[in-house]
Specification:
The chain is 36% helix and 23% strand. It is α+β, with helices and mostly antiparallel strands. Helix 11 runs antiparallel to helix 15 (336-344). The longest helix has 23 residues, at 399-421. It starts with a strand and ends with a helix. Flavin-adenine dinucleotide is lined by residues 8-14, 31-34, 39-41, 43-44, 47, 49-50, 137-138, 167-169, 172-173, 177-178, 181-182, 360-361, 387-388, 398, 400-401, 404. Residues 8-14, 31-34, 39-41, 43-44, 47, 49-50, 137-138, 167-169, 172-173, 177-178, 181-182, 360-361, 387-388, 398, 400-401, 404 line the site of flavin-adenine dinucleotide (FAD).
């Protein structure tokens, strides 16, 4: 007998669950509140669609920090190589960029999504076509039962399935559909959910003077939007261990954001939660040694201004000099030894993460302890979960999509096995 499975959420996790269930012969119905599928996946395509990362498995797994053990079985079953092979099957060749990140050759998400949807909708070879129901919002469960409450333009109805997979995403970029509204619905069903928090996010700087809320008006007006590069950040991770990484970030109206900042965001967020603020250290001249910088700050500059001197001797200018003026006292700027020290290690205090709605992804979500090895809720047999709505986080670099695809596949396979066993 054909089994019916409801999947709520048509992001990469939900679509991967649909694929696994379709392959097992289930009649799959995918519901999503948005007018079209994979909105966040398509947005990721604007940045080139970093699908996965080419590093070896031990390093790859380590990116999921304390959640690596929980994700390991799913990522060992569907890891970076499998993700690339899967894309190739859909006609999308990938390449490894200089940083080890893996992208589709055309750096776009739309062709991959189009081919994927075509295959899901077509079915064939014992695979029933997947039915898509867009603009259908899941509202929870009909009282006392497992039927799903679904609302669309015509009103509310219920949908009864033999099993269900929730792949509702986190709470970042809610206008793309994942708004975190599911948290109280699952909590009411006895499923343990860690609060959703910003991950891979920007930060507000702590006041830089007694009468300032954050950056000075001068810094904000002159340099907001300016990239700081090259630069190295040293900061503690969530376990308290200091790391150094080189790259670039952007000065914003209220603080800092960008790929280098995202790499440190979990540790900085936890420090702020514990102590009310976090401090990171900037190396404004990562290619110079301290001695090289000191030799230049000590060099007599005659009638030249300090800014002109730093620019001509060290190529230190623009937003970098702006940060020094912003964060140091005039006396520190005038002391060649102190200045050299701060150019190589400039402390920057952060007071808050930017809101989760602005973040690339969210931390928190359904705790793995609430789920069995097949990602089925222990308290709700037949209810599976996948993707960013689970309680894990990872830096940017393709780790997010890979874990969404891997857990989506695991939830789909889990639901298929559960149905078969009944
Ligand atoms: C700007 C940006 C760039 C990114 N770039 C990358 C990248 O290059 N590489 C990478 O690995 N990751 C990237 N990510 C992260 C990645 O896109 C997400 O981690 C991933 O899309 C999450 O997949 P998901 O299927 O779990 O959830 P989502 O993609 O968020 O999908 C969840 C779906 O559930 C639907 N939904 C939610 N609630 C309901 C409801 N009640 N009823 C019906 N439907 C509902 C939503 O409409 C949505 O379609 C990026 C994210 C952003 C914001």
């Amino acid at each position: 007998m054909l089994r019916t499975v409801a999947i709520v959420g048509a992001g990469p996790a939900g679509l991967m669950a649909a694929e696994a269930l379709q392959a097992a012969g289930a009649q799959v119905h995918v519901f999503d509140a948005m007018p079209s599928v994979g909105r966040k996946f398509l947005l990721a395509g604007i940045g080139g669609l970093n699908l996965t990362h080419s590093e070896a498995m031990p390093g790859f797994l380590a990116r999921y920090a304390e959640r690596a053990p929980a994700l390991r079985p799913f990522l060992e079953d569907f890891g970076p190589d499998a993700a690339r092979a899967w894309a190739a099957e859909l006609g999308i060749e990938t390449f490894v960029g200089t940083s080890g990140r893996v992208f589709p050759k055309d750096m776009k998400a739309a062709p991959l999504l189009r081919a994927w949807l075509h295959r899901l909708r077509a079915g064939g070879d014992g695979r029933p076509p997947v039915q898509f129901h867009m603009r259908h919002r899941w509202l929870g469960w009909a009282e006392g039962g497992t039927a799903l409450r679904i609302a669309n333009a015509e009103g509310e109805s219920t949908f009864t399935a033999d099993a269900a997979v929730l792949a509702l995403g986190g709470a970042s970029w809610p206008r793309l559909g994942s708004d975190g509204m599911w948290v109280p619905l699952l909590a009411a069903r006895g499923i343990d959910v860690a609060p959703l928090r910003a991950s891979n996010c920007g930060f507000d700087v702590a006041p830089t003077g007694p009468d300032r809320a954050g950056w000075s008006t001068h810094l904000r007006e002159r340099f907001a939007g300016e990239p700081v590069k090259p630069v190295a950040i040293t900061a503690a991770d969530a376990a308290g261990l200091a790391h150094r990484q080189q790259g670039e970030f952007v000065v914003t109206e209220t603080g800092i954001e960008g790929s280098l900042v995202y790499a440190f965001s979990a540790g900085l967020r936890e420090q702020i939660a514990a102590h009310g603020e976090a401090t990171l250290t900037l190396d404004l001249l990562p290619q110079h040694t301290h001695e090289q910088v000191l030799a230049e700050t000590r060099r007599p500059r005659g009638a030249r201004s300090l800014s002109t001197h730093l620019k001509s001797r060290l190529h230190l200018q623009g937003v970098k000099t702006g940060l020094l003026h912003e964060l140091l006292t005039p006396a520190q700027m005038d002391d060649p030894d102190a200045l050299a020290g701060f150019i190589k290690a400039l402390p920057l205090r952060l007071s808050a993460t930017r809101p989760v709605a602005e973040a690339i992804s969210s931390a928190g979500g359904v705790r793995f302890e609430s789920l069995d090895d097949a990602l089925m809720a222990r308290s709700s047999p037949g209810l599976f979960m996948a993707g960013e709505m689970l309680d894990w986080e990872a830096p940017t670099g393709g780790y997010l999509l890979t874990a969404c695809l891997a857990t989506g596949r695991a939830a789909g396979l889990g639901a298929a096995a559960w149905l078969k066993a009944r």
